[in-house]
Amino acid sequence: MHLNGPSSPSSPVSLPALAPHALAVLWLGLMAGFFGTYSANVNLAMLQMDGATYATVQSAFNRNVRHVLFFALFFGPPLWCAIALAAAWREHRQRWWRVLAMVGVAYALGIIVFTQQVNLPLNYTTEAWNPQALPADWARVRDQWNAANLWRALLSLGLFGIALGALVARLVHRHPMACRNPAARL
Hints:
186 residues; mainly alpha; 6 helices; 0% strand
């Protein structure tokens, strides 16, 4: 996928201009890892638990993820995308710029708004349960939460890959000879 238009400037990109883009990629990768690890490990382990244990442990996870570091990581990707785009406003006609803008919007809607509309209500439901007197549909709620988290894992992984591709394309287009001939950098 070629992410830069034909009229991209050929001057080198400075580190301050690349840093927010690289941080957006890093933050997206961290969140993809968080959601992916949860789906591939924690959710699978929780499927083996009885209802009372599931309700207790899932509620504890939900309560203990509410801290400054998680919030900074969770809300960071669209913020870093916006900072990267603002820092490179002169390149707003370039394809990489539009792709990164799409990534920021997709994360804001597909992860943040989705979490607010789907995962958080399920969290509140689970946290309201009495583990000794679970509702009959507790397993359905668990399965809905697991499916919603898998969506977040897959979307954040895809957005990470797209943002990384945009960064690589941005660099390759700016330094085409160095990227094609590594010996030229020595």
